[in-house]
Amino acid sequence: MIGPQAPAPPGSAQSWDGPGGDAGSTVRLPVRQGTGRFLVLAGVFVCAACGLVYELELVALATYLMGDSVTQASVVLSVMVFAMGIGSLAAKRLRRHAAAGFGAVEAALALVGGCSAMALYAVFAWTGDWGGMWASGPRALLVAFSLATGLLIGAEVPLLMELIQRIRRQDAGGAVADLSAADYVGALVGGLAFPFLLLPLLGQVTGALVTGAVNAVVGGALVLGLFRQDLSRRARRTLVVANVCVLAVLGSAAVLVDDFERAARHALYGSDVRVALRTDVQEVLLTGGRDGRPLNLFLDGRLRVGGRDEARYHEALVHPAMNGPHARVLVLGGGDGLAVREVLRHTGVRRVDVVELDAGLVRLARRDPALSALNAHSLDDPRVRVTAADAFDWLRGAPPVAYDVVVSDLPHPGITASTKLYSREFYGLARRALAPGGRLVAHGGAVASRPRDFWTVDATLRAAGLRTAAYRVRGRQAGFAAGPDRGPATALAHRDWGFVLAARHAPEPRLDPSGPRPRTLTDASLAADARAAGRTRVRGLPPSTLVHPRYAG
Question: Hey, is 304 helix, strand or coil?
Answer without folding.
Answer: strand
